[in-house]
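re: that chain from earlier
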Amino acid sequence: MPTPGHTAGSVSVLTDEGDLVAGDLVANSFMGLIPGKSADPSFHDDPVGNFASLQAMLDLNPTALHVGHCIALRPDRVRPWVRREHHRPARLEAAGHLTTRAAGRP
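^ sequence. v structure.
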C-alpha cells in the first residue's frame, strides 16, 4: 500500500497474519537503544503526510510493525505515541520551522 511521507514512493505491506512491514514510517527510539519505544525517523519528505500514512496503517489493526531498523514495534505502544506527536509537524510547519528534504534530493 502506498504510504507517502518518509519518501514520496514509500510503501508498506500488510501480511495475512497482520504483520505490517512499515519501513521508516516510525522508528525505534534512540536508534534502537530503547527497544520497542516509538520515535520519529530523523527526516521525511513530508512529515505531516508521514503521520497520516502511519495512522492509516494503524487503522488496519496490524499485530506488529516491522520497521526499517531494529526490532518490531507493538501497535498498542505506537498508537499513544502517534496521538501525542501527530500535531508536532503541523505546529512546526505553521511556525515555518518544519525540516523536510528538498524535492529531488537524496
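Residues 29 and 37 are 5 Å apart (CA to CA).
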